[in-house]
Every structure is written in structure tokens, then in C-alpha cells.
TrEMBL record:
Organism (species): Rothia amarae
UniProt remark on cofactor binding: Binds 1 zinc ion per subunit.
Entry's Gene Ontology cellular component terms: cytoplasm
GO BP field: threonyl-tRNA aminoacylation
Molecular functions (GO terms): ATP binding; metal ion binding; threonine-tRNA ligase activity; tRNA binding
Signal peptide feature range: none
EC number in record: 6.1.1.3
Keywords, alphabetical: Aminoacyl-tRNA synthetase, ATP-binding, Cytoplasm, Ligase, Metal-binding, Nucleotide-binding, Protein biosynthesis, RNA-binding, tRNA-binding, Zinc
Major place of residence: cytoplasm
Name this polypeptide is given: Threonine--tRNA ligase
Quaternary data: Homodimer.
Record-listed Zn(2+) binding positions: 357, 408, 540
Lineage of the organism: Bacteria, Bacillati, Actinomycetota, Actinomycetes, Micrococcales
Amino acid sequence: MSVENISVSVSGENKNVEAGTTAADLFAEDREIVVARVNDVLVDLSHTLADGDTVVPVSIHEEDGLNVLRHSAAHVMAQAVQEYRKDSKLGIGPYITDGFYFDFDVEEPFTPEDLKKLEKSMMKIIKSGQKFQRRVVSHEEAVAEMADEPYKLELLNLQQGPGSGAEAAEGASQEVGGGEITIYDNVNPKTGEIIWKDLCRGPHLPSTKMIANGYALMRAGGAYWRGSEKNPMLQRIYGTAWPTKDELVAYKERIAEAERRDHRRLGEELDLFSFPKTIGPGLPVIHPKGGVILREMEDYVRARHIEEGFEYVKTPHISKEDLFYTSGHLPYYADGMFPPMDPDNGAALYRLKAMNCPMHNEIFRSRGRSYRELPLRLFEFGTVYRDEKSGVLQGLTRVRMITQDDSHSYVTKEQAPDEIRHLLKFMLSLLEDFGMTDFYLELSTRDTEGDKKDKFIGTDEQWDEATKVLEEVAKSTGLELVADPGGAAFYGPKISVQAKDAIGRTWQMSTVQYDFNQPKRFGLEYQASDGSRQEPVMIHSAKFGSFERFMGVLTEHYAGAFPAWLAPVQVIGVPVAEAFNDYMAEVAQKLRAEGIRVEVDYGTDRFPKKIRNASKEKAPFILIAGGEDAENGAVSFRFRDGSQENGVKIDDAVARIVEHVRGRVNSDPAT
């Protein structure tokens, strides 16, 4: 009896294989292949191929492969938890950037000792080589099998309702949604016995052994079910998983370095800012030393805007809420805005502004406009307010009060590409001036399918045209362009600059957005050269993104050791003994006369302690004066790297410091 063959395309090469061949059969000799992409759908290696399938292998080192590794590790962790805590009920357990988490309903919170025990239990499961096996089940079968898991039942019931269970919470899409309901079994490879199971869309690794020893449980904490404070508080365990132990160690070292650079800790140590409980979460106050950094940022970006043809404006912090209905923010962005206020006893409701653009539109239409005025570029340091939930607030990088270097360019449709090009060049040069030079671009577009497609306004033609303009300009920069489907603002697509910091983390910084909606909603017009009335295109841009976030990112990028031109204290003078206080005071006065920010330690501590104290302040220059220095009209330099240069004449020392600061040099001074 002849064996039937089928034809499949494997990495672009046509192959004839036996019917019943699986993806695992194709890649059996390559142990790094963990899943496959069949007809552009990610599937388990156990997936049986059909005639005409297009198959692409996915390595454990690729993003999709890493996600599968981490989601499989999450299942192993959940199995270990339910063996260890018999009372535990399962929440959601998705992969996330660099790791995974799983939520559990348990009687007692997890302790660090619990995590150590769970890691050991996971290793036993991993070494046993349990197989991950996929089963398609009906809704009724899934309900029966998950009868003891109330949170899984809730997801299943949501999926049967008007929405999709996949939209229920972050990570829920990895469990339900997308048509079929599937359960993954962890199976004993010798007996075929199902050891553990979970509602899951998959895919997964073929075997737990592929997780190896590159995993760790990082921490535990509380998390509300489905992210709502109205729901029960669950216990969330975070973990990470990597293809090798060496990669795990490298990741932990990066985490330790990130903790050393944490701007929240450095902000307190360097006396830059704080979050008083009496004021409220997400509402920072900037201290004098932080104010120096903020002032330098403001002075720089104000001057740059004026150089680039922008005009400074100022608008209120609150407005009648009708303004935000006109702009579309209340119909499409209401969840991000604070509740209304009623100062006029029902005459009109007011809102804290979440965006500056509606008020800039009012400036544009305050009088007639001519094509000769375009591009019309308005900018302000506008403070806006976002109703961020307390659980997502994070130091200066996620706050409720945001001060933007916000600009809006009003242009003709023909001028739009050049204006976007002008703004991108401006934004990239700004980041480079602050010492961030490694970046790529991200193009955020609208969702065209699913529930979120109705959260965007405008016609298909408008979106296509705007997206094409942004894409072409972005590509012309030569930078890498990454797609971000569904990440656009409701009124138009967006380019964001994704900048990498000193330890390789990516931060969203500057943005530029093409808006074809608000001009129409506000009835904005200009008189064209032929006398007709035309509607402008509006280009939104924020160069820092926000002052608060940018300060937080810079603090971490430089680990608090700011470049001399940005440093709150640029020079600390340290007399070797009290006898040299007056001498150092004269040196300090010469520096202050040149606009240098200098402090002198006149305290009674011993000299070595004064040096340690000055080093903790992370000042770029420490000047030392002792007997030999005073005799020779000189000072000694001590730099942040610990190196020292002795006997530098005072005038030469002042000139070197002034040149370094005024040159806006981002690297540290050195011998």
C-alpha cells in the first residue's frame, strides 16, 4: 500500500513529505526550534501539516520563541503552586517582556521562602520531561473541566457574552478568544497521565525539559483580578526564563544595574524631587536641585523651538468640558480624564485638560488665517492631567501631572511631509544634545478589526493617506521603523522615537502625530492663494514627551551623574583644612562670576569624609585646595572616576570648567 505524500513549503523551499508529518518531524535535528509558524499562525511542533502549508521554524532565541518558553515556564510555576498550596485558584498567567507572571487566589501571601521552594519544585517538574499537549474542547467541556477554577469560568462566560473573554484583562488573550477553546495538559511522558491542566490558547514547548535551568522567580505582590479595585486581590508571582543559565545571569545583572539607576531612589538621595503623601500619588514636587535640571531643560527647549520657527503661547489648566467634546477627547478618551467640576452651580461643567491641542485650535481660529502664515507653529509648556490608575504610577515616568513641550503645526496638506521631516530632525537632534544617540522609530496605526476599531475616527482614505505620509518620512531618515498596530491616537497615526539608554533599555520619547480630524471638528480654515477657504492639517509634536518623564529617564540614563551642563551642582570645593576656607571661597566666587553652580564644604568633617560626601553628590568637578595649592595659586581636580590632577592654576581651572559646561559636553571631564 503506497504512502500518500503532501507538498509543503519549508522556509521558502518546497518539500514533499508523508501525510501525517508534524512540524516536529521537519525540525527534529535542531533542538533550538521550539514552535513553528504555519500559514503565519504560531503552532505547537506537534501540529500535523496539510498539503500546501507554508512552514517557518521559530527558534527559542527569537521573540516568539522566547514568549513560548516563558509562557510554558508560567504553566510549570502554576503547577508547582497548586501542588504546594492546595487552596490556590488560578487567575491569568501570560508572558510579558523578559518574563512571565501568574495570578493566584490564596489564603496567605507568598513569601520569599515560598518562592525558593517553588523554584525547587519547578526543577523537579522540568526534569521529569512532562509533555505539553493541546486539546480542543467545547464551551460545555471547558466549563466542566474548570469547575473548580472560578476565575477561569468567568473568562469562559465572558467569551460567550457580547464581548470576548480575551478583552477581559491584560493577558487574557493568551487563554481565551480567537475562536476555539483549548486546554493544555501537562502529561507524564512515561504513563500518559495528565498531571496538571489549564485553559490556554498556546502554543507551548514540546517538553518541560526545554525550560532547562535558565529560569527564576523574581518577586510576588498583590494584583486585583482583571485590574479592577472592585474585584478580589490576588497574589501575583513574577518570573523570568531564558534559553541558557548564562543569559539568566546576564539578565539578573541588568536588573541589578537598573535598580542602581532607579530614578525614584536617586531622586531621593540627590534631593531632586519627592511625592508627598499629603499631595497625592502621581503628583511630584520638584526640589531646588531638581529645579536646576528642569530649568536647563526648559531654557534649552524654549530656545530651540524659537530657532525652529515656533511661537510661544499659554493656555489654561481647565476648560468647559464642551471643548473636549468638540475635540473628540471626551467621546474617545474619557477614561483618561479626571471627572467634571461644577464651579458655576450647573451653568457649565469644567474639566482639567488632558491635552493642549483643543486650546491651540482656539488660538488658530481666533481670527482669519492666510496661506502665507502657514506653517503656523504654536508651542507651550502645557501641564495636562491624566487619570492614571494608582497601580500603574511609577515615579516620574508615569504620573498624573504631565508638563509637555507641546507643539502644533498648522500646515497645508502639501506642506505636511516637509513639516513632519522638520519635526523629526528637530526631535532627534534634541535627544542627541542630551546624550541619547541610540534610537529607532515606531509607527503607530489604528486597529482595523475587533472591538477597538471603533475607537478611531476618520475615513479609511484619511487614515491611509496620513499613515503613508508618516511612513515615507520615517523611512527617509534611514532609521529602523517598527510597526505598532493599534497604538495610534484616536485622531490620527503617530511616529514615536524609541530611545535606548546607557544599559540598553528602550523608552518612548518624542512623538509626532498627523491629525486630519480636529481641524474639521473645530471648523479651522485658512484662505488659500486662489481665494478659496481650505482646511489645514494639524501636526502634533512633543519633543521631550513630558518634562517629568524625560527627567526620570535622564536620571536613569546617567545614573544620577548628570553631564556638567545639566548637573544641579557643577563644582564642589573641598578645603583640606579650615585654614584654606577663605582661599576656596575666592575660587568659588570666580566660578560663580562665570555662571557656574558651585558649593563649598565649610563643615568640620575630616578631609577624607568631605571627599566621600562630595562623591555621593555626583558633582562632575571636585576642587581641592591645600597648602601647596594656596602657595602656588592653584587647585587640584578630582573627577567622578576617582582620577585626580594636581596643581592647576586657578584661572586655568576656571577656564577648563567654563569651557566644558558651555560646550554642553555630555561625557565626564577627566585628566
